[in-house]
Amino acid sequence: MGKQPHIILFNPDQWRGDVLGHMGNPAAVTTNLDAMVNEDAVSFRNAFCQNPVCTPSRCSFMSGWYPHVRGHRTMYHMMKPDEPVLLQTLKDAGYYVWWGGKNDLIPPSTGFEPYCDVKYVPKQAPRPMFGGAFEGTGNNWRGAPDSDTYYSFFVGELDTGGESHYYDSDWANIQGAIELIQNPPTDKPLCIYLPILYPHPPYAVERAWYDRIDKSLLPERIDTKTLSGSKPSILTGLRDLYRMENWSEERWTELRATYYAMCARVDYQFGLLMEALKQAGIYDDTAVFFFSDHGDFTGDYGLVEKNQNTFEDCLTRVPFIVKPPAAEAAQPRVSDALVELVDLTATVQQYAGLTPNYTHFGKSLASLVAGETETHRDAVFCEGGRLHGETHCNESAPANGDPSMLYWPRGEMQRSEGPEHTKAAMVRTHRYKYVRRFYEQDELYDLANDPGETTNRIEDAELASIRDELRERMLTFYMETCDVVPHGRDAREKK
What we know:
Elements: E1 6-10, H1 31-39, E2 42-48, H2 54-63, H3 86-92, E3 96-99, E4 118-119, E5 154-157, H4 169-182, E6 190-194, E7 203-205, H5 207-210, H6 233-242, H7 249-279, E8 286-291, H8 313-316, E9 320-323, E10 333-340, H9 343-352, H10 366-369, E11 380-384, H11 408-415, E12 424-428, E13 432-437, E14 443-446, H12 464-481
Parallel strand pairs: 1-6, 1-8, 2-10, 3-4, 3-6, 5-7
Antiparallel strand pairs: 2-9, 8-9, 11-12, 12-13, 13-14
Helix pairs in contact: 4-7, 6-11
């Protein structure tokens, strides 16, 4: 095996796949990502997560398993010590693994030692994320409990106290990673894992980033007035509880511009990290992966944040950008190939020269990155929700239903024993999306003619053959991935 490359896993939280300048979004200020795609990297236009909330998605892309394989489909069922995690694989293979940022992957009781050499703790204590926004401190941005801002997640401008930026944990972890690059271990390749928090709501950002967003260039929001046909009941339920139905378009624009500004801030931080690699002379020796765990409604369908069992593209399509080390072939561009986040593990392993010792379902993106092919998958999949009676699978369990909690609306929907939190799964091709739902009507969209997924055509006779074909494809998917058999075999007789 040749020299192992350094590896950067840059993992912002809740970044929609369409908020990228090089994807043709004129309002997105992502100059550093755009430059890397123009020069060194491939960005995948059709990259999809395997679950639209944090922990199940992270368990999936860190193992190469779909959430159903071992029941990693809630926020409270993380990776266990006997299960494969990419960070541990790299550490065992001789990498110096540095983890700076959030967890949402392993139970804290397990400890981080098996997975990384360093779980970074900043020398200077960062300020609370979003100015204490989760608690509604500071200027009491949430408003009164009966107001239309109480569950909006909208904060707006962060008070920097006269500093150049609001020194939160994201800034602290970025600076810690840069210090490591400037003073790396001399005997091991680096793996830097940066699961930062932005642009996860609450929607809050420094004025300097907000001022960079031209609000007149924001794409049109998917308004509830455009929806027809049967849509998932959780969407209506969330809208009722959020109480934002009377928001003007101007107010939605302010929220959306703030989210775009949060992405611009992350792009700037990413640029700082890339510049540090260049200054250290190791940029060419580094494989860089930029990807998010899932997306965000950001006003589409009259909603904010996300939920666990609907699969609109704004939630399931994510940024996924790969820059290989210079020793590996690359044809920089935007690729239209269908790819999944489970492909991360396989791609990292290939570039690192590792052969997995367990079954996973990722497919390396290396040949796509090299420009040797433009096809990868015929379909992508995402899944979530729960069966009736599976109260242990409530994403918000064991919350007590306190309405003062910021996530109370989503928790109420997901504690329901009605159809709202039904188990569901998506299969998506380039043109069509089919969603199988247990306790309410399935969904079918013709994305070529309805990219906003506004009209459910599940009962349209013209698409009956497409519906049946996608149902069959979903059955094949579950047959192929329903379990994993350990590579080591048990002895059947005593020797």
